[in-house]
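User: My instructor asked us to take a sequence, write out its structure as tokens, and then describe one feature of it. I'm not sure where to start. Here is the sequence I was given:
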Amino acid sequence: RLMKKEWIPMIFPELRDYFEDAGSTQTGTGCPLGCNFCTNKRFLEGKYTRTLGIAEQEIKALYEQCVDFTFVRDPMFNTHPKHVADSLEFMKEQNEIHDKKMRWFAFVAVKKLGKMSNEEFFKKMAEAGCLEAAVGVEDPLDNREDLGKHGSLSEAVDFINAGKEHLLVRALLILGLPSH
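Assistant: Let's start with the prediction itself. The structure tokens for your sequence are:
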């Protein structure tokens, strides 16, 4: 879906000077993680549906419209190894066959993908055109496990540090969680 030009500076202020046209696609809905503060858990009861086939059609249409930046809407892009591998392969292939390259952004979880190292994951994202990943750190003061999050705070920091060499990694914090 093509994103309205006036939305681009509001959603991605750090990127507004670099891209003319932005779009969005959804590669998955819901989230299999059980974060106790998240609306995905409450509304979708932990159900996760991958919609890569539809996203592929949307991305091809965005290329036809000369879109150069896409927001990949998926609550947690990296929760299923095969989904990640298929998505990254598709985006990389599309960027190889088109003159105008599409860059993109996604939300990722502090989660190791099978045998793939975190460094390899972020490198593959960058090779597929990803410029930025947002990581839900949530609350650096609380125990992440008490929040239903995967990995300790030090694992979250290591995960973010693994990506910094390859792309912009944004740590997302939530202030005022119920435990405060």
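For the description part of your assignment, you could build on this observation: The radius of gyration is 16 Å. Try explaining in your own words what that tells you about the chain.
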